[in-house]
Every structure is written in C-alpha cells, then in structure tokens.
Recover the amino acids of this structure.
C-alpha cells in the first residue's frame, strides 16, 4: 500500500528525495561525471537510511538514541530536498514530466554554476556522512506489512449509533420529557467523561425532535471558542444569514429577536467553561412557547450553570452495561452479536472489561480488530495484553487504548492521521480538501500508475473504518463527505505530532522560539490577541515550511508575508476577518494547493501566476477576477471559483483539469463554452446558468456539443444563479452519442427546470443519482426514469399543481431505486402499484397520503414534510392520522417521521 509514497511521518522526504537524486544521475548529466559520482554515493547512503527508518516505523517503542537518530535523518531529508529543488529551479527546470530540460548541461558549463552545485553537493555529502557514522547500531529486521481492507459496515455503525451505543432508551425518555406541554423554557444538560456518548445522545434527540420546532440549530463550542463565529453559525442555521459587519452584541440581539416569537430547539455541544455559556445563553429568550435547550459538557460546574432555573435537568452519563458493550463490540466486528466465533468469546469479555463500558474505547478497539481481518485468538490476546492491567475509564487509560489503535496503523495512514492535527478542535473537515492536501504534501502513493485521488480516498476510508475519524455527513452513495475528530483522539494526534516534529500550532498563547528541529507544517490560529507579525518573528527561518493553514479572525490584521515560506506546498486560509497578504505568491514554485475562503477579508491574487507550474488545486470561492494566465498552469487538476467569476479565454488548454466549478454559462465567452469539450479529463463539472443573453441558442448548442465530448464526466451539477432561481433549461440536451458510453453517475439540477422529463435522459445508463425539477410529470416521463438500470437516488419536484394521477407501475421499473424524494402539490395523486420500486428503502414526500404504500415491500422509512402555514390543528391531525393509517397497512411497519413546516410550498396553477 505504501509503495511509491513520497513523504511520510516515518521517513520524512526520503522517497521524494531519492527520486530527484536519480534524476541528477540521468542522461542529461552524463557529461558531469564527478557530479554523478557524488550524487550516487549520497543516494546509496540515503537508501540504507530509508530502509532503516521504515523498519523503525513498525516498532512500538524506541530507545532515546535510536529515536534521536531517526529524527535527525528525517529532518535532514527535508533540508536536502529543499536544496535539490532550489538547484533545479535555478537551472531552469520546467519540463512537465521529467523535470529535466535540454539546456541543463549548457547552464552548468558556466564556472559559477559548477562551483555552486559542487559546493551544495559537498555540503550534502558531509551531512550524510556525519549521520551515517552512527548508523550501524540501528540496523533492524523489517517486519512484513499487513494489508488493511475497507469495511463496508462503517456507515451502519454511525447511521445507527443511537441503537449501537445503548442510548435508545435514554433518547426516548428525554424526547418525551422535552416534547411535553410545558410552555416554560427547559434545559437538559448532559454531563460525563469524554467518550461516554454525550454528543451521540444529544444528536439523536435533536434528530427526532427538530422537525416539531419552528427553529432548530446544533453547534459545538470546544475549549477555545470563537463566540462570534458560533453566534453567526446559530443564526445561519435558524434561517437568517448574519451580516459580515455584525459584532458579537449585534449577533446576540439578532438571535434574541429572531427567536422571540418562535418555539425553538438549540443544542450547545462540548461547553468547557461557565463564561462561554454565560455569553451564549443571552441569545435565548424565555418566551413561554415551549422552547428547549440541550447542552453537553464534561464539567459539573458548567452543567449546573446551564440548568439555571427550576425547569433544568442534569443527566449524568454512565458507562455502557455489559450487554450494550458486548452488542456494540460484536456488531462492529462481525455485524451481529451472535456471529462471534466461540473461541473468541472469553478474550472478548476480557477486552471489554478493559474498556470499562466507554463507547469511544469499545469502538476504537473493535474497529482495529475488524480492520485487521484476523480471527486468530493469538492476535486478540496480543491486543488484550497491550491494554495493561485494570480497567481504562481514566484519561490515561483511554489514551492508552487510542494509542494502541494509532500504533496498529501502517506508516502512510499514521502520516495522514497526524496531518488532521492541522485543523482546530471541532472543525468540520471536508474530505475532498483533506485528500487533496495529502496528495499535495506527497503522502499518497504514486506507484503502479494508480489514480492518486482514488488511493487517497482509500486512505480516508481506512481511517473512518478504524473509527479514528468520525463521519459527519454522507452523500447519497454512502460515501463520507465531511468528518471530525473526537477531542480525545485529537489530543493523541497532537501529542504524536510533537514527538515526531510533524506539525506546529501557533495560537498566540505561547512564545515562538527556536527549536532543535525545524518547523515543517504550521497551523496558525489567528485571534484578537495574536497577529501574524508577532507569532512569526522574522529572526526565525520559515523557508522550510511545507504546509501553512490559517484559521480564526482578527480584524484589520495582516497575515505574514508569503516570502517567508519558500518551499511551501500547501496554503489553506479560512479566516473571517483579516488582511491576507499574497505578496510573493508567485515565488512559491513548489506550491501544489491553494485554498482561500475569507469573510470580510481583503486579498488580491497577482495578475500573473504562471510561475506556479506545480499547482494542482486552486480554490477561490470569493474572488471574481482571475489571472489571465491561469489557463497556462500545466498541472492544475481542481479549479473552484466564485459563482459569478469569468474564466479567461483559452480554457481548452487546461487539459489536466478533473474538477471545474463554477463555470458561468451566461458570463463566459462562446469560445470558452466550446473549449469545455476539450477538457476530456473532467470528472466533475458545475455549471451556473441564468436568463441567457441574445445568443442563447448558439450558447446552448455549443454547451450540448461540449458535454457530448466529456466521456470521463461522472458528476454534472447545474445551478441557477441567485438572480434567476427558476430558469428553464429545456434546450439542454445531448446532440450526438459519445464515442464511449456515458460515465455520468450523478446529474444534479436543484434550481433550473425542464418542462417535462427530457427523452435524452434514457441514454444515461450509469446514472445513480438524479435531482431535477419538471413542470409536469406524465406517463412517458415516469417510463424514461424507470428504465435507468442503476438509478438508486431520485429527487424530483413537480412545479405545477398536479391534477392527473402519477402511477408507479410494478413491471420491472426502477430496479435499483433505494431512495425517492418527491415534492408535489398533493401526494394523493401518487399511486404505487403492486411490485413497484422493489428496492425502495426510504421515501420522502411533501403533502398528504399516496396510495399503495403497502406495495413498497423493501420500505424502511417514510418521511413526510407538510406545509401548515395558516392550517387548523384539526387539519394537521387529520393528515398525520391518514399517513399513519397507511403505513400501518405495510407488512414491515416502517419508521415514520412527520414534520410540519410553518410555510407552504408554492406550485404553479
């Protein structure tokens, strides 16, 4: 798995460096015999060091001398690679594939260039020799690597967490307590040790109750909260976007005003001090409308402060019972409690005793055992012995369990996990961003011509499978799209990162001083008490830093100049208020990844960025004006720009692009629309469209022609601009069949609409997810959709008032459909015949009751959203009663969820 890995926590940059030294031994340098001889000596020495470091990565404990030697070698590898990169850049390295140019030797013929490289190679040789003198004592037998397989049951673990961790009964009890007739504000404060499942319980209660409240929100506070950002997040979830100029007091006032006349449900997760609660509670009015608040904390004092009146209740979380512990453990490993082999039952009981009923510990150990795929009792006994004596319901005990899971990882997974420590506590991490950062840093294997993005996805899935990172959001295909890290796991990651000198966090709470080893990755937490200039004193070199991330807000403060970071690979900026200084960006010739998202931030890209020849990812969601030479970046694979951005002419040159969003169909030139057809590597395309200009027909023809050429396209998103939210796109069609079958898997059109289901959709034979709007759905439209063999998820809105019956026939249609969401004026015009949608598990409807629900034999869940603005209580009761009566006729008794909205969907007469 780790073959071809470029950079890792265990071997530093040795793999990447060895490849570059091999380049210096190539034919281009054949005439420089002394250079090649010296480089070969250095390369041979470093190969031996790399082998030793790979062996050390499998050992659980190192003696101090070995650890120090490892750290020196690893640090040295970064420094040598920086020297080689600098040399190659200075002699004019610009070849797109090999990194060697034909005039290399010509440039080296000058005495000045020869003298410089000779001096650099001599310095490198001395450094390597000094390190090699201590090497013999560290020769080791390298143990064999183990394969790690992706576990398809991990989604089940998180989707059914409430049942698995034994909180089902508690959730039901407190749902009933919170959803009673009491009109005064109630507060439930859940308190307990880290890892007991406080957030899981709060989340499950929130999931069940949020539909019956007029406003609901869920936010996490963490140990160092940004209160202004939290208040803005609350306001946003409640349906009101905060102004970019709102200060903390304004946000509090807006929240109180918004909630004053509403029955609301608010979850405040992970509160660490009374002061944070004292500020947040000011935004929650006691309006006697039956509003509810749930808080979670580890600290009794905070729990008591939250329950500030007679209608507050403190729930102390307890460890799981033996029965629930066993159920969680066995379900994670075997998928069923009864599937445990008899020879593992005794050792399982002993392992569970060590876990002390703590869900986090049980999930960590069971996920490690499940990922190993071994049912050998000796392997399980080894795990038991590693847990030590006594139970582990202590901070040190839990850390020991999590540490065991970490040590069981292969080196490439350890590296990827440590990198997550760059993100702040409780930060919601986008999976795609994280994977692209791993690739940019060189953590992902390039061996055997594998697709690096797919390899990175496998790494991510393995970390999820082992429960080292926690899923937050899934897409319709069941893939995790966002994740978080439990704060106890984050503590371990930061501890290991410090031991490995892997990353450094600067938040203004400490004085930055010189250390024995150089900073390689830097996470800067900007706030009012700390600004870039004081965090990064200029007398300490930062040129060797490979990743820089900024988080937080600090009004009118400047980020440090980029000229400090000569060898930077990754630049990630997520700031609320700051002045982002991009001066010197074009000198970052090793930059692979640039992502900037700023609210109330000032920044401007240079007018020319062509020098960023290694740039692979460029994401600028808040920038309208793009450099004209962006089309000449040869390695650019991911480009995300603002909805209203206009790309410069010549996008047909961007042959490496795999991901493009957004491409504004209305603002871009006709030549660029035609140029889309040349981007045959595109996997993802997001289009923005509005009311088209005078040449609408020519533009649409050009677009359809280009789309027909994109045979690698897997996802097409078409969104209407905010100025034209319901534009008709009937002209969107495929003009001619492609040379190969369409690979399109997802077609998402949430805002624009067709008059009817277009006939060309029937050629999309690989389509798995379709989201679209139509004015009317006729029999032929149902037929077109029903013929798609792999369609598993269908979101459909019928915009006109429905007056004709929509019949879903049971004659082999929709053979793969598992999830169906339909919004129409009246579900009473919908009928399911016997045998219809044989695989459907989840049905979501707006309006009243359809006919034939009992014919959906695989149905597990029915969700109904009912607009009740100005409705009588009796009408709402009648609709709910009809839905429950219909579902009672179903042989499998599916789950039912009914949400009443304080507004009505609008349909056209």
């Amino acid at each position: 798995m780790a073959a071809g890995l470029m950079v890792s926590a265990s071997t530093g940059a040795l793999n990447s460096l060895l490849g570059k030294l091999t380049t210096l031994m190539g034919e281009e340098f054949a005439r420089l015999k002394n250079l090649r001889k010296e480089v070969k000596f250095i390369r041979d020495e470093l190969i031996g060091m790399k082998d030793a470091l790979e062996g050390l990565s499998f050992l659980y404990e190192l003696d101090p001398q070995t650890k120090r030697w490892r750290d020196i070698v690893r640090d040295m590898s970064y420094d040598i690679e920086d020297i080689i990169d600098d040399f190659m850049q200075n002699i004019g390295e610009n070849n797109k594939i090999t990194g060697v140019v034909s005039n290399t030797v010509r440039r080296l013929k000058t005495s000045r260039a020869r003298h410089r490289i000779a001096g650099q190679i001599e310095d490198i040789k001395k450094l390597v020799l000094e390190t090699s003198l201590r090497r013999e004592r560290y020769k080791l037998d390298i143990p064999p690597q183990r394969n790690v397989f992706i576990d398809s049951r991990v989604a089940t673990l998180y989707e059914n967490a409430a049942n698995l961790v034994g909180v089902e009964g508690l959730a039901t009890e407190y749902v009933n307590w919170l959803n009673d007739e009491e009109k005064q504000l109630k507060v439930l404060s859940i308190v307990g040790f880290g890892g007991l499942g406080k957030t899981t319980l709060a989340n499950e209660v929130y999931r069940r109750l949020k539909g019956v409240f007029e406003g609901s929100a869920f936010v996490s506070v963490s140990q160092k909260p940004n209160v202004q950002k939290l208040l803005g997040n609350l306001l946003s979830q409640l349906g009101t976007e905060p102004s970019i100029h709102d200060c903390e007091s304004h946000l509090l006032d807006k929240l109180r005003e918004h909630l004053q006349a509403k029955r609301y449900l608010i979850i405040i997760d992970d509160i660490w001090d009374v002061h944070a609660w004292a500020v947040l509670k000011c935004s929650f009015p006691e309006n006697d409308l039956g509003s509810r608040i749930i808080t979670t904390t580890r600290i009794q004092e905070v729990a008591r402060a939250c329950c500030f009146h007679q209608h507050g209740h403190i729930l102390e979380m307890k460890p799981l019972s033996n029965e629930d512990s066993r159920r969680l453990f066995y379900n994670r490993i075997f998928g069923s409690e009864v599937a445990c082999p008899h020879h593992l039952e005794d050792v399982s009981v002993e392992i569970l005793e060590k876990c002390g009923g703590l869900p986090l510990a049980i999930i960590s150990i069971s996920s490690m055992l499940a990922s190993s795929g071994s049912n050998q009792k000796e392997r399980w006994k080894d795990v038991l012995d590693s847990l030590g004596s006594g139970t582990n319901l202590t901070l040190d005990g839990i850390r020991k369990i999590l540490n065991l899971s970490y040590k069981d990882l292969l080196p490439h997974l350890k590296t990827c996990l440590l990198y997550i420590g760059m993100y702040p506590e409780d930060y919601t991490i986008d999976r795609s961003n994280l994977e692209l950062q791993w690739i940019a840093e060189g953590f992902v294997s390039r061996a055997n011509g594998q697709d690096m993005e797919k390899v990175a996805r496998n790494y991510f899935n393995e970390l999820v499978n082992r429960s080292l990172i926690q899923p937050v959001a899934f897409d319709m295909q069941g893939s995790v799209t966002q994740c978080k890290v439990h704060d106890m796991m984050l503590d371990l990651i930061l501890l290991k990162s410090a031991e490995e000198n892997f990353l450094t966090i600067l938040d203004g709470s400490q004085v930055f001083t010189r250390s024995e080893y150089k900073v390689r990755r830097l996470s800067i937490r900007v706030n009012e008490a700390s600004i870039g200039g004081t965090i990064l004193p200029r007398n300490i070199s930062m040129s060797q830093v490979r990743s820089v991330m900024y988080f937080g807000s600090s009004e009118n403060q400047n980020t440090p100049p980029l000229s400090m970071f000569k060898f930077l690979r990754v630049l990630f900026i997520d700031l609320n208020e700051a002045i982002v200084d991009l001066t010197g960006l074009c000198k970052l010739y090793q930059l692979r990844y640039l992502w900037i998202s700023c609210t109330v931030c000032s920044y401007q890209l240079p007018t020319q960025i062509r020098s960023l020849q290694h740039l692979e990812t460029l994401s600028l969601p808040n920038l309208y004006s793009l450099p004209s030479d962006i089309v000449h970046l040869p390695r650019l694979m991911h480009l995300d720009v603002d909805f209203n951005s206009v790309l410069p002419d010549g996008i047909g040159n961007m042959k490496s692009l795999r991901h493009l969003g957004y491409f504004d169909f209305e603002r871009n030139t006709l030549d660029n629309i035609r140029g889309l057809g040349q981007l045959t590597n595109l996997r993802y395309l997001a289009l923005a469209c509005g009311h088209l200009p005078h040449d609408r027909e020519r533009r649409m023809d050009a677009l359809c022609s280009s789309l027909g050429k994109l045979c690698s396209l897997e996802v097409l998103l078409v969104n209407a601009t905010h100025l034209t939210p319901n534009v008709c796109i009937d002209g969107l069609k495929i003009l001619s069949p492609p040379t190969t079958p369409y690979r399109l898997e997802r077609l998402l059109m949430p805002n624009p609409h067709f008059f009817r289901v277009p006939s060309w959709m029937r050629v999309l034979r690989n389509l798995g997810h379709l989201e679209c709007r139509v004015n009317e759905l006729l029999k032929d439209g149902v037929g077109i959709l029903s013929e798609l063999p792999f369609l598993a998820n269908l979101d459909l809105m019928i915009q006109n008032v429905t007056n004709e019956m929509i019949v879903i026939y049971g004659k082999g249609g929709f053979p793969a459909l598992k999830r169906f969401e339909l919004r129409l004026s009246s579900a009473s015009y919908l009928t399911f015949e016997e045998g219809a949608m044989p695989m459907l598990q989840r049905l979501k409807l707006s309006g009243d009751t359809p006919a034939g629900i009992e014919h959906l034999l695989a149905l597990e869940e029915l969700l109904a959203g009912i607009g009740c603005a100005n409705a009588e209580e009796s009408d709402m009761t009648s609709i709910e009663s009809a839905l429950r009566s219909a579902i009672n006729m179903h042989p499998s008794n599916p789950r039912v969820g009914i949400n009443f909205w304080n507004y009505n969907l609008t349909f056209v007469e």
In short: The CA atoms of residues 726 and 752 lie 5 Å apart.
